[in-house]
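Re: the request from the purification team.
They wanted to know what the chain is likely to look like in 3D before they choose a buffer screen. I agreed to run a prediction and write the result into the notebook, where they can find it.
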Amino acid sequence: MSKRTRTRRTRLPPPLVCRQATTLVADYLSGDLDAETTSLFDRHVRGCRDCTAFLRSYHTTIDAIRSLRYVDIPPALQDRVLAILRQRAS
C-alpha cells in the first residue's frame, strides 16, 4: 500500500483588478498600505500597462503640484477657484 503525500496549498489572495488598484494609488505612494496589500498592488502594476501608466501619471502630477509655489497662482484665479469650490460644497 502506497502512502499519498498531501501537500498543503497556500491560499493566495485574489489578484487585484484595475479598479481596485487605482483606488489604492494614493495610499501606496504615501506608504500607508499594509504589506500584503502593497504586495498585491505591486504584482498587479507590474503586469498591467494601464495601471503602470496611471501610477506614473499620478506620481508625476504629485511632483508637479509640489513644485508649485503659492505666489505662482494669480489672486484673481485663486478667488475664482475658491468660489467654485465653495459653490460645489454647499
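For the purification team: DSSP finds four helices and no strands in the chain.
Please add any questions underneath this entry.
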